[in-house]
Amino acid sequence: MRAMENNLSDEVVRWQEKLYNRSTRRKMRVRKLKQLLGAVSNQRCLEVSAGDGVISAQLRLDGGEWTTLVPDAAAQTSAGYFLKGGLRILQDETIDEPDHSFDAVVVVDALERMRDDRAFIRECHRVLKPDGRLVINVARRSFLGLFNSSWKKKGLARAGYTGTEFFDVLKDGFDVPETISYSTGLVEMPGRLCEAIANKLAGGLYNMPPANAGTEEFYHYTKLYALGTLLAPLMWLLSQTDQLLLFVFQGRNMAAKTKRRVWRERRTPVLMDGRSIAEAALNTKIGTAAPF
Q1: pLDDT at 269 (0 to 100)
Q2: Which of 18, 54, 82, 99 has the fewest other C-beta atoms within 10 Å?
């Protein structure tokens, strides 16, 4: 019985890795994260993930001692196919680790899930060593995203971040020397369409296998792999063109490498009447103190 369960688990991992190799967007995300993260061998690293176990496994290929936190039991089950240790559920925005425990913290598609994102970032700051680094990936919130409520159905707390909002949530405890914008709508729109089709075929999130996955899931994976193989040349071509478009258009994803510093809340100065300095300047004629 145990041997059969192990064989089924190995088969799930094999199919998920094959599907990952057909996903332009997921591979692009891992490539950007590794670029910002740098060398991790002989370092303690914390990953906060939405539950994509393949991405977690890819980050571990470069060495280091890893701990992964996921949002719920379903994500823990999914990631558990790939991670045999160091996997726990994140309780609210609290990281149950001692102060200054990690050389690096990597947040993958998880900040949008945090009800209190600033409290979570402060926790990341607390568990990092004084010279530690935070690498974080988020979706860019577009104007159209204000009218699209699909993010609520996914259990997210927000549709994403603007560049200003992203910096604002990090600024109290981190310097942000490097930010990468990647993957324009040319890749994201067809990629999300393919993802929606894949989730429909799989009857759930295709990249998060359920407990006791079996014949039915493997049947879906076969169809998904065939679809991915068919579309792979087109997505590769779009990804190459996407690199050129980034000189003109903003990417739909942002990834930042930050450097920990002493926590100091930065608040925008306000006047006695509650207006910001910028607002006061806009409402006053330059060169005169007169109110007209």
Answers
A1: 57
A2: 99
* Residue whose tokens read 């993010």: 151
* pTM as predicted: 0.85
Give me the amino acid identity at 38. Answer: G
Domain extent at residue 152: 2-282
pLDDT for 263 equals 93
In a domain, 49, yes or no: yes
**CATH number for the domain that contains residue 260:** 3.40.50.150
Which residues does 241 contact at the CB level (< 8 Å), separation at least 6?
Answer: 186
* Spatial separation of the C-alpha atoms in residues 82 and 236, rounded to whole Å: 26
Calpha distance 19→47 (Å, rounded): 22
Average pLDDT over residues 199-214: 87
Q: How many C-alpha atoms does 197 have within 13 Å on its Cβ side?
A: 13
Sign of CA dihedral 51, 57, 62, 68: positive
Tokens 């990092």 found at: 128
**Cβ(104)–Cβ(74) below 8 Å:** no
Considering the domain boundaries, does residue 53 fall inside one?
Answer: yes
Please say if the pLDDT value at position 26 is more than 60. Answer: yes
